[in-house]
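Researcher: Can you fold this with manganese (II) ion in place?
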Amino acid sequence: MADIEKKPVGITETILRDAHQSLIATRMPTEIMLPIVPKMDEIGYHSVECWGGATFDASLRFLKEDPWDRLRKLREGFKKTKLQMLLRGQNLLGYSHYSDDVVTYFVQKSLANGIDIIRIFDCLNDLRNLEASVKAVEAAKKENPQAHSQIALSYTIGDAYTDEYWADIAKRIEEMGADSICIKDMAGLLVPYEADKLIRNLKSSTKLPIQLHTHYTSGVASMTYLKAVEAGVDVIDCAISPFALGTSQPATEVMAKTFEGTPYDPGLDQKKLAEIADYFRPYREECIENGLMSTKVLGVNIKTLLYQVPGGMLSNMVSQLKEQNAEDKYDEVLNEIPQVRKDFGEPPLVTPSSQIVGTQAVMNVISGERYKMSTGQTKDLLSGKYGTTVKPFNKDVQKKVIGDAEVITCRPADLIPPQLPEFEEAVKEYKQQDEDVLSYALFPQVAVDYFKYRKAQQTGVDEKKADTQNGAYPA
Ligand SMILES: [Mn+2]
């Protein structure tokens, strides 16, 4: 290997976002994060992922924290390290499409409050759903020159996902003006030698840096990183060991050690990494003890590889079947999934498409007739409201589910008029900062509950009425 040019692999640390989202349902509070931030800032990570995904919802709903305040505090602590977030394209951090003015404002405010790298993805890999976010990052570069837009492709397996598909979509991402590409393998489906092939293919079709994100769910993730790094991937996502493995990412220390002394050496200090691991270990123990971390998520879920569907989707299916007293239909439903996916244009299986396909497969089996019953989400998908799938829908199925209802072929957000003014109006009574309107836009009821709690806390402190006020809103 001595004759290979030095090419250190970058490490994105996920402990402050995906690692705890994957292992403890995003429940790590800001107060656990802040004391270790100065040490993390000394490591030399490519970036620290710390925001987006479910952190917003969990902060407001369960932790009674302002997510914007968390971001500002992390920004204050990380003087040198780039901060990264995950954004669900036109859905932002919510579950439905927003108008472009809301998307643009959210991106502006995320950057203004301290984010450097925004990773943006769409469950159908429909790049039109990512246009507004990428443009907003581009426009914000005047004020935030470090701003970086990364388009993440949801990784999946299927007839439509050929070498040509990946090469072509990578080219289109480059043309869109994104700054880098991520392969986002949320289910742990990418096996080592496929990763080698995929990364080499992408590397020959685009000049953009390529980052790989996977989960340890199926047990292959660190081998996948090894092959991907040898194939030229630029950055890998890892989690410090107490919050690594299982449904989380490969361990940071292990990957850093693996590449030590090779041309790919990320150059991280094992002693300093060990100090960070020491800091999080007692918190891990606490989470296991109080049940926040279940040992179930720490093992290898081999079913993921067997059926090529995400682990979360399988457990959803099992509970749906249980509710119907139809657990004996499990194998039938598993066999139905590829059929439904085909009828739906072979989408990747990530939230929300995984739920739509899984629920429909259950309904098809239980009712004994395909598409006799369907959900509103299935109707929306087959009406084009989520965007375009890689293959066309099955026309007969589409007709059976939506009848003569209108089918959208344009970019779905083109049909959504500006929403910001109505959100501003609705939040006016509670607003204490510009960002509140965005919290409201994403989770209206949860945000209002939080705003009321915040007000009560403030009044409690200000007017020395803490006892009565706090009584109503236990923290
Ligand atoms: Mn992930």
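Model: Folded with manganese (II) ion in place. The radius of gyration is 22 Å.
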